[in-house]
Design brief:
Elements (H helix, E strand, L loop, with lengths): L4 H20 L25 H15 L9 H15 L9 E5 L6 E4 L3 E5 H6 L3 H16 L2 H8 L1 H19 L11 H11 L4 H18 L4 H12 L11 H4 L4 H13 L9 H14 L8 H10 L3 H17 L3 H13 L5 H13 L3 H14 L4 H13 L3 H15 L5 H12 L3 H14 L3 H14 L3 H26 L4
Parallel strand pairs: 1-3
Antiparallel strand pairs: 2-3
Length: 498
């Protein structure tokens, strides 16, 4: 029997009850550690295993993707996660990284168990180049790779219990069958609050700096971006325009730490640091997406001013942001004019192609939108947002067989990062009269978003719809595995029921 809604409510109240004392109690004193680059990573291995740490992160993310501040945008998600994985691959020891954006004007970022890193939109907008953003992401990956989060959770019982309570609430919601249709709580606000209480020691911060700088240099970024970004945030509280704590307050700087960071940056300076056009496009889009959660000036006006004072990729991205903002305001004519100004800068970019297709659709020209999306997807075969847009346009045009043909190879490439691909394929298969594959794909979608009971129902329906022996065997195995996962999650949540 699924757990009742009152149980979820009680678990969420448990989270809040744990949160308040965690915010009021001072941090535990840091243990003395050797100078230099200490090895802090393994001290929590017994108390918080890597497997539990990964499960914690997965459970919180399953609930957190329904947080209203979560930026559910494939272009932004692909850019940030690709950046994080590129950095992590440069010797961090982190096997899995997912970087996501939060609509919040404060200058902040936080790492959660399992390699999940949240970046506030305000932090991205405060950066002046891609190396500064890479510096913050690399620093957070440094904390994850050295298992500082696990270590501090083991030392600080209040924060550890809060995260376990958040996990229990997330798993209870999934066990109740809430699925992706429920409205999530302010999960990432709680996660950031917990992160602010972990209070890494000075040696841990220095270690994350050094590991991060090594990753940045190996990836071709300017290591000075880390010190310039952290130094600017530390100098003035005005960079924190939101209600939450600033990154500078949760990662306090010292003269010694800044000096060490600057010396290391000079020693490993990069002659021609990398700077992608996508950074500017993502930054412009986040300015628009943040506007509903910020008292800041009109982003369209800000982006128009930026476009007029720059050229090339940065100007094209600013015009793109204006076009995207005007489209959100239901002004397709104004958006089309701004989009044409972006194209006139002579910069080709997948986010421009994707917006062009959306503009065609806003003008009720489905044929043009489909052609635009198909041309863009052919030009940028690794761009997920364009692939999703192409399939959606084919569906709008009633071409479901073609949509499935396009989607299925992309499920192999990106399905775990973009669960919506499975849902889209299932929708087309339902219209094509293929219930077995439809149910299997919906089961995969629900499993990836953390709604295991809903996934189980879909698997059972697929099993009932087929008489093919091999397929029945595969489905039987999936059903058994899903039931086991559901029981494991319920066993965990029972520890929190009162």
């Amino acid at each position: 029997m699924p757990m009742r809604a009152p149980v979820i409510t009680r678990l969420r109240r448990c989270v809040v009850a744990l949160l308040v004392p965690a915010l009021l109690v001072g941090a535990a004193p840091a243990r003395a550690q050797p100078a230099g680059l200490p090895d802090l990573g393994d001290t929590a291995a017994v108390e918080l295993s890597p497997r539990l740490e990964q499960r914690l992160g997965e459970a919180i993310m399953a609930d957190g993707r329904r947080d209203p501040t979560y930026v559910d945008d494939p272009a932004i998600r692909q850019y940030l996660t690709t950046l994080g994985r590129d950095l992590a691959a440069r010797g961090s020891g982190v096997a899995s990284v997912e970087v996501f954006a939060i609509r919040d004007p404060s200058i902040n970022a936080f790492a959660m168990p399992g390699g999940y890193i949240g970046i506030h939109s305000g932090l991205v907008l405060s950066t002046q180049n891609e190396s500064e953003l890479a510096g913050v992401v690399a620093h957070e990956i440094g904390h994850v790779g050295q298992r500082h989060v696990a270590r501090r959770m083991a030392q600080q019982n209040q924060s550890s219990m809060l995260l376990l309570g958040m996990m229990a609430a997330a798993l209870a919601a999934a066990a109740a069958g809430a699925g992706d249709l429920a409205q999530g709580a302010a999960v990432f606000g709680q996660a950031a609050a917990v992160n602010s209480q972990l209070s890494f020691s000075r040696d841990a911060e220095r270690e994350a700096d050094r590991v991060g700088l090594q990753m940045m240099t190996a990836a071709g970024f300017d290591p000075a971006g880390m010190s310039s970004m952290f130094g600017r945030m530390a100098q003035s509280g005005r960079f924190n325009t939101g209600a939450g704590p600033s990154y500078a307050s949760t990662h306090p700087m010292s003269i010694e730490r800044m000096s060490d960071m600057q010396n290391l940056s000079r020693a490993s300076a990069v002659q021609a640091p990398r700077q992608s056009d996508t950074y500017w496009f993502v930054r412009a889009k986040l300015a628009v997406l943040q506007s509903g959660y910020s008292r800041a000036a009109d982003p369209v006006g800000m982006l128009r001013a930026e476009a007029s004072s720059h050229s090339g990729a940065r100007a094209a991205a600013a015009h793109y942001g204006v076009a995207y903002g005007l489209l959100q305001r239901r002004d397709p004519a104004g958006a089309r004019a701004a989009w044409q100004q972006a194209v006139a800068e002579g910069v080709q970019h997948p986010m421009l192609d994707q917006l062009g297709a959306e503009l065609d659709l806003a003008e009720n020209n489905v044929a043009a939108a489909t052609q635009h999306a198909q041309a863009g997807a052919a030009r940028w075969p690794q761009d997920r947002a364009l692939a999703i847009t192409e399939a959606r346009m084919l569906q709008r045009a009633g071409r479901d067989a073609e949509a499935v043909q396009k989607l299925e190879p992309r499920l192999e490439q990106w399905g775990s990062d973009e669960p919506v691909l499975y849902r889209m394929a299932a929708e087309s298969l339902a219209r094509l009269g293929d219930p077995v594959r439809e149910k299997r794909y919906m089961a995969e979608y629900y499993a990836l978003v953390g709604a295991l009971p809903a996934s189980l129902i879909q698997l059972q329906q697929a099993r009932a719809a087929t008489h093919e022996f091999h397929e029945q065997s595969v489905l039987d195995a999936r059903i058994a595995e899903t039931k086991r996962r559901i029981e494991d999650d319920r066993a965990f949540t029972q520890k929190f029921e009162r």
